[in-house]
């Protein structure tokens, strides 16, 4: 037999080892003043040998008495089936044992397992091997009247009386070694003709024990009814049965293997294990729950030097006020190495957290502590929390340090959500008050530009297309792009560049804001807005691109004056540079003057402003190669695209748009929405943007606000649904439930395809039909709907429309339930977006709503229930102790205004038999 180790269940510094003999050790922190054999357990602890029992050569298993008195009492199971109850006699190193008690089965066979009852400590269970027509599971009462056999072999009645459960019997005190007490018939005999391989008592149900038998059964027995097992499960995991000390209905067992399998059971549902933990290449030899750590299970395998740990994580919903339920458990596996040689046995310390004692095959001992796994979590409010065992460390800044200029995206999204970004704030000027990111602002600017095109003039049916879709001709009749023509009016002006025009190009210019007319205003208005923002270089260059050199020179002159008089103006270009560029532009002629062009190229190389450099490049280019302008990333995308739509031929334009779109998608640049529009390319672009910035808020809101004018494949895309659902969950995590509700309403109003199914309805307990099934006037009689606009004139439903049974009574006023709000028709002219909800409340009166408690099923009219719980804590029904209003922890944690703060649910119950209401 390999060496085994066992901590004392009641003494924190004593343990035994057993194999060839039984040795009692005392754990000490220092070996000074220690007499006798001393073993080193760790760097800080040693083991002092106290006593040895060396006269038991048939030892197979041991169980330590769970109480302090008698001192160091052991139950020893032998290979011949005898169970000996003995104790260490004194402090001598070599000693025989004290008074021995023997419990002998009818037929000799090996004893596999022993277990003391943790509550009724006079009960000792023994599991034996199989013998035909004999039991293998016996429960002995060590306090029954016994027979004493003296040295001569003569039997005589014992002088010791029987004692009650949990008290010391006088016969168990130290006695003389010549005497042996032989136990009589067992208190209970179970499991005929089957071997019992392992067993364990339940710590609270002290009349019940569980046993692994016949290599295929786990059985639960109740000593109050030994005729048959209380419950059973078919499994090969019948070894090492162990009851969780923290959750007594949870049991662990294993099959040796290979492969070794650990099964976790819930005896309340004993048909199959809760979970199965496999060790494919190992043969498991031992298993035990940690007595000090919740959900920590440990195992060892043959010829292995590590202890395998399973940290079983649980989540529980509910409270002590009503029935709670557990979610599926998850397991975190890890291992601990205590020695370099293989471990033959281990034992958890009964009181010191995570302390374990192991023994190797050669008898070397190791005392060590398993370090807790440290977990880290960010809270939705960005607080960092560390968890280590039973300790929780919350890291907060006190006082908080000021945030940097660039806040984390989570802070930004929360701040925007509270302000109503994308739901209450949709107009561009409103969004600009909460958004500082210029690319996000450009995204919403594009959105409103498309909205204006759809709502004005001949482009009313225009959807959220991008320039790539428009230029490729997909929006044209027949799906073919019309051939562009050279606009002759430009050729009569001073500019030499060819200007192309077509219907598709004009639409693209409208999207870029360059289609100056009824929709976007005149060119002069557009340039004036740019100047008011301090964008003089851009305004001058756009004026030049639109064949207005005089306007460009005037803008540059105004910029020079502003730079001189106002040092804090937005432009970073010195005023002298504006004057130089204005003078150069004033000397432009259509003739090819080499000196002027040479001076302009030299001046262009010295200017840092991308727009001013683009102006000189445009004037000095002769072959129509505008790559330096089109590829300048510092020029706004809409300006580059509009320039391409005006001055590039068809073949070059399509190629440029496609290449630029691909670059924008690759970078996840929101400016690329102008090119992609709300197409599948847009989803790819937004995916890159979300991966780069984690801004699921903007990605979700732009799609929600674009509904239903987007292709159906976008709304069905799994990525889009993931962003929207993640944003909703994020709002819930922040407890911004009002904002999340507004988002859902906003989405459902804009997307007609979202028809939420009915989630709650009231049914009759007699016929099972909904009380709304046939109540109220039908839609085919609209002239009667006007009669019910006033709630006082609307008929009340007082009974089931199917079986005509009356509805339950209100538990306070005892009047049958009934409310006009049960009528299915919707009154006309209800503004769902109205700021004040008085219109809706005046039609559907909350005071008459069905309200009930989900626990006791009592309820009544909403206003009666609310008034009652303002002054009382218990249910209004007589003899009902339910605290209905306290069951809703969410409503109590975050109360809202008025009656909406009452989280009540409509299942009613009355004393007389009436229709009850059921939630589905």
From TrEMBL:
Presence of keyword Metal-binding: no
UniProt KW keywords: Repeat, WD repeat
Example GO BP: cellular response to amino acid starvation
GO terms for cellular component: cytoplasm
Domain GATOR2 complex protein MIO zinc-ribbon like: 764-885
Domain MIOS-like alpha-solenoid, residue spans: 413-647
Repeat in keyword set: yes
Compositional bias segments (type: Polar residues): 899-908
Pfam families: MIOS_a-sol, MIOS_WD40, zinc_ribbon_16
Gene3D superfamilies (alphabetical): YVTN repeat-like/Quinoprotein amine dehydrogenase (2.130.10.10)
Family as reported in the entry's similarity comment: Belongs to the WD repeat mio family.
PANTHER family the record matches: GATOR COMPLEX PROTEIN MIOS, WD40 DOMAIN-CONTAINING PROTEIN MIO FAMILY MEMBER
Protein name (database record): GATOR complex protein MIOS-like
């Amino acid at each position: 037999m390999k060496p085994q180790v066992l901590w004392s269940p009641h003494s924190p510094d004593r343990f035994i080892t057993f194999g060839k003999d039984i040795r009692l050790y005392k754990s000490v922190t220092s070996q000074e003043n220690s007499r006798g054999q001393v073993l080193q357990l760790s760097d800080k602890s040693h083991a002092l040998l106290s006593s040895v029992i060396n006269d038991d050569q048939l030892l197979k298993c041991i169980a330590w008495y769970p109480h302090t008195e008698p001192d160091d009492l052991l139950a020893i199971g032998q290979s011949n089936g005898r169970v000996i109850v003995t104790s260490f006699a004194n402090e001598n190193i070599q000693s025989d044992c004290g008074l021995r008690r023997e419990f002998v089965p009818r037929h000799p066979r090996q004893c596999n397992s022993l277990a003391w009852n943790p509550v009724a400590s006079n009960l000792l269970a023994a599991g034996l091997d199989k013998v035909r027509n004999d039991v293998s599971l016996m429960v002995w009462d060590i306090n029954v009247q016994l027979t004493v056999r003296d040295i001569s072999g003569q039997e005589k009645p014992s002088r010791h009386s029987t004692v009650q459960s949990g008290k010391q019997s006088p016969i168990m005190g130290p006695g003389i070694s010549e005497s042996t007490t032989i136990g009589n018939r067992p208190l209970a005999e179970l499991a005929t003709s089957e071997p019992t391989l392992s067993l364990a008592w339940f710590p609270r149900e002290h009349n019940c024990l569980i046993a692994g038998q016949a290599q295929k059964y786990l059985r639960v027995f109740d000593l109050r009814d030994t005729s048959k097992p209380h419950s059973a499960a078919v499994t090969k995991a019948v070894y090492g049965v162990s009851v969780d000390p923290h959750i007594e209905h949870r049991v662990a067992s294993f099959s040796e293997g290979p492969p070794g399998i650990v099964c976790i059971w819930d005896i309340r549902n004993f048909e199959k294990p809760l979970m199965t933990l496999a060790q494919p290449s190992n043969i498991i030899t031992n298993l035990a729950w940690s007595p000090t750590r919740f959900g920590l299970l440990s195992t060892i395998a043959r010829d292995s030097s590590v202890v395998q740990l399973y940290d079983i994580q649980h989540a529980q919903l509910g409270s002590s006020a009503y029935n709670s339920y557990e979610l599926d458990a998850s397991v975190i596996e890890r291992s601990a190495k205590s020695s370099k040689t293989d471990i033959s046995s281990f034992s958890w310390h009964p009181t010191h957290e995570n302390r374990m004692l192991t023994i190797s095959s050669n008898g070397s001992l190791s005392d060590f502590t398993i370090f807790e796994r440290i977990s880290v979590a960010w809270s939705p409010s960005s607080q960092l929390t560390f968890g280590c065992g039973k300790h929780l460390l919350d890291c907060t800044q006190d006082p908080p340090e000021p945030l940097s200029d660039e806040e984390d995206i989570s802070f930004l999204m929360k701040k925007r959500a509270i302000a109503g970004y994308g739901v209450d704030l949709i107009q561009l000027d409103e969004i600009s008050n909460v958004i500082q990111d210029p690319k996000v602002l450009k995204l919403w600017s594009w959105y409103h530009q498309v909205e204006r095109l759809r709502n004005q003039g001949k482009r009313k049916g225009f959807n959220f297309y991008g320039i790539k879709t428009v230029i490729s001709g997909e929006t044209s009749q027949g799906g073919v792009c019309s051939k562009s023509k050279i606009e002759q009016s430009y050729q009569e002006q001073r500019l030499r560049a060819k200007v192309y025009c077509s219907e598709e190009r004009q639409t693209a210019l409208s999207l870029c804001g360059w289609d100056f007319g009824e929709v976007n205003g005149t060119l002069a208005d557009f340039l004036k807005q740019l100047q008011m923002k301090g964008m003089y270089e851009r305004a001058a260059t756009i004026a030049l691109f639109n064949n207005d050199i005089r306007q460009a020179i005037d803008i540059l002159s105004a910029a020079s004056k502003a730079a001189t008089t106002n040092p804090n103006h937005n432009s970073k270009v010195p005023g002298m540079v504006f004057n130089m560029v204005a003078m150069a532009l004033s000397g432009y002629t259509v003739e090819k003057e080499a000196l002027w062009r040479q001076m302009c190229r030299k001046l262009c190389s010295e200017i840092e402003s991308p727009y001013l450099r683009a102006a000189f490049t445009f004037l000095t280019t002769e072959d129509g190669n505008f790559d330096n302008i089109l590829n300048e990333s510092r020029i706004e995308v809409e300006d580059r695209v509009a320039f391409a739509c005006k001055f590039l031929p068809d073949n070059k334009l399509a190629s440029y748009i496609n290449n630029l779109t691909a670059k924008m998608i690759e970078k996840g640049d929101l400016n690329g929405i102008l090119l992609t529009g709300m197409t599948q390319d847009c989803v790819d672009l937004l995916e890159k943007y979300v991966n780069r910035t984690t801004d699921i808020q903007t990605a979700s809101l732009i799609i929600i606000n674009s509904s239903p004018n987007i292709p159906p494949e976008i709304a069905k895309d799994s990525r889009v649904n993931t962003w929207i659902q993640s944003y909703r969950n994020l709002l819930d995590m922040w407890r911004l439930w009002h904002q999340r509700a507004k988002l859902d309403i906003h989405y459902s109003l804009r997307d007609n395809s979202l028809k939420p199914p009915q989630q709650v309805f009231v049914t009759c307990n007699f016929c099972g039909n909904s009380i709304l099934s046939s109540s109220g006037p039908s839609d085919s009689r609209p002239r009667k709907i006007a009669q019910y606009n006033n709630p006082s004139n609307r008929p009340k439903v007082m009974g089931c429309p199917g079986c005509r049974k009356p509805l339950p009574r209100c538990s306070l006023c005892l009047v049958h339930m009934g409310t006009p709000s049960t009528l299915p028709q919707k009154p006309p002219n209800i503004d769902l977006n109205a700021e004040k909800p008085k219109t809706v409340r005046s039609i559907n009166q909350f005071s008459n709503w069905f309200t009930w408690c989900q626990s006791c099923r009592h309820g009544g009219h909403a206003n009666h229930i609310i008034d009652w719980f303002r002054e009382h804590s218990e249910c209004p029904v007589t003899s009902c102790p339910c605290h209905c209003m306290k069951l809703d922890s969410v409503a109590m944690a975050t109360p809202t205004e008025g009656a909406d703060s009452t989280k009540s649910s409509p299942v009613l119950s009355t004393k007389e038999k009436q229709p009850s209401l059921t939630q589905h």
